[in-house]
Amino acid sequence: MPIFSSSVRPKCDLTVTRYKNFSVQICQDRLATIQSLVRNDETLLVVCGIDSHFSQGSQQLFDYLLFNVNQKRAAEIERTKLEDEHFDDVVLSIRRNRVQVYLNPANYWFYLPYVACWPNLDIHCAPDALFDDQDVMEELKMKFLIQAVDGCNSVCVAYYGKESAGFSPMLVEKWPLIQAYAVDGFGVGTFFTLKHQLRDVSKDVFGLIQSVDAVAVEDLTDKPLKPFKNQFDSVFQTIDFLAGRSEPQLVLEEKSLNQLIEVIV
């Protein structure tokens, strides 16, 4: 059960029409695929934003599970006038048969539709009245972390991005959230790596992220087709323009058109 007040989780009513490039089934499949990497006595910890020094691995895994929501709905985020740190304030604890999510009152309703369909989900979110009390919010986040890793001998992290290599547990120990874990009276009073082994699953995670599903195909076709369409529109406009020119001018303009086509191809 959540360790502090949380709104009742509403029924997930997402449709591809309402949220483009989203599928409830694929959302659940992506989570299940990531859960397959986690052993019975482990949790996969995903810490976003400043709490992990903007870990590339955590962010890419978060983007994969939530369909790059921050990029796709960037205009909506900008209209909120909230700082980016409010949307980065997310922690996921993924076990084989359970998921715990820490959100804050600012990003709760934004991310909720993308995680609401996950099975065996616990969402931890402070009441709106506590949002402006930074000390209380940090304390609640620490309580979430302590509970999220409780009983886990090993904690998985996707520390690096696909371009990185090498891993040391001490790199994770430097994360601000993990450092706070060791503060006596705030965390548990001992270093995180003394209580939990750290296992880097970056290679496995990014191997799965590279796999192609229906939404990934839709994303791939969305991005290149728009500039490609603009290029062809430019070609057709040039053709229409040439159709009204005299023959000597047409010979010169035809060379320009051929050069343009070569650039496109």
From TrEMBL:
<dbReference type="InterPro" id="IPR040342">
    <property type="entry name" value="DNAAF9"/>
</dbReference>
<dbReference type="Pfam" id="PF23281">
    <property type="entry name" value="DAAF9_N"/>
</dbReference>
<protein>
    <submittedName>
        <fullName>Flavodoxin_2 domain-containing protein</fullName>
    </submittedName>
</protein>
<feature type="domain" description="DAAF9 N-terminal">
    <location>
        <begin position="9"/>
        <end position="209"/>
    </location>
</feature>
<dbReference type="InterPro" id="IPR056498">
    <property type="entry name" value="DAAF9_N"/>
</dbReference>
